[in-house]
Amino acid sequence: MATSPRFELADVAALGNRLRANVGRAVKAVDEVVQDVLVALLAEGHVLVEDHPGVGKTALARAFARSIDAEYARIQGTADLLPADVVGTSIFNQREARFEFRPGPVFANIVLVDEINRASPKTQSGLLECMQERRVTVDVHTHEVARPFLVIATQNPLDYEGTYPLPEAQLDRFMVRVSLGYPSAEQEADMLAEHAAGDRVLDLAPVCSLNEVLGAQEAVTRVHASEALRRYVVAILERTRADERVELGASPRAGLMLLRAAKAAAALDSRDHALPDDVQALAPAVLSHRLLLAPEAMSANGAVAVVRDAVARVPAL
């Protein structure tokens, strides 16, 4: 692969604008959702999309893949899906009398894991190493995944038949959790007209290369986060841990993810430093799925309410 170009912050912002516009040609998603996925891509995180079937979760992943000219793979979560179906397996080559590794779909750049909570916990655990460490170990041999690498997993609500709740360790690997929701009546009518002639995602052309994405990711690492901002992030984490509605608060990894996401948001705004505003905007998407609520506090938006209360009560330093 060619060396990724050195990106300036203005280049990152321009790339973000091109991607937003291109994805918007095929997917009618709210701006905040597209922004969160873009932040995860540039901050080298992963995305969990939790929503009802048929609202455009798969189209969103495909649109991002086509927009950055990425290798795309889709994994359908089912009860009989095995870890080897995800990461790959070793096959014996009779002609050469040796085992050869056949890579699984996780070696693509953008991997859609559709209905991840229909897969068994054993198969879900097969994603842990590649999502966190960007590598896969099979038969004591380690294989690096592609770069850039983004997992977009979709999850049906837990009251759907045949679903398994994702364990806390798996949820913690996702940088952001988003929900598309149903479109407005006007948007849905426009969607019916636009898609009558075929799949709009197939009409998308790439607006940047993989090397440009890598250059933008490197630029994000150069965004400054002050000591005051880091202390502000820690104060929000501590507030979630002290909340009476929470049994398990946000982890230190959650703070790392929130800070990385804030730096990506700053870069997309052509800034060389992250602000408390970036942290506040991203905190619900980054932190809410990492909280374990007390039984009496369980509700559809209970975790989001806890995070928003923490942000409201912690003064920006």
Kindly describe this structure.
The protein is α/β, with parallel strands linked by helices. It has two domains: 9-217, Rossmann fold; 223-313, Magnesium chelatase subunit I, C-Terminal domain (Helicase, Ruva Protein, domain 3, Orthogonal Bundle), CATH 1.10.8. It is built from 13 helices and eleven strands. The strands form four sheets. It has a five-stranded parallel beta sheet with strand order 2-5-8-1-9. A hairpin with a 4-residue loop joins β3 and β4. α2 (31-42) packs across α11 (252-268), α9 (210-221) packs across α11 (252-268) and α10 packs across α13 (302-313). The longest helix is centred in the last third of the chain and has 17 residues, at 252-268.
Write the layout of secondary structure elements.
Blueprint: H1 9-24, H2 31-42, E1 47-50, H3 57-67, E2 72-76, H4 83-87, E3 88-93, E4 98-103, E5 110-114, H5 121-125, H6 128-133, E6 135-138, E7 141-144, E8 150-155, H7 168-171, E9 176-178, H8 185-194, H9 210-221, H10 227-242, E10 246-248, H11 252-268, H12 276-287, E11 292-293, H13 302-313
Parallel strand pairs: 1-8, 1-9, 2-5, 5-8
Antiparallel strand pairs: 3-4, 6-7, 10-11
What's the short version?
The chain has 317 residues and is α/β, with parallel strands linked by helices. The protein has 13 helices and eleven strands. The chain has two domains: 9-217, 3-Layer(aba) Sandwich (Rossmann fold), CATH 3.40.50; 223-313, Orthogonal Bundle (Helicase, Ruva Protein, domain 3).
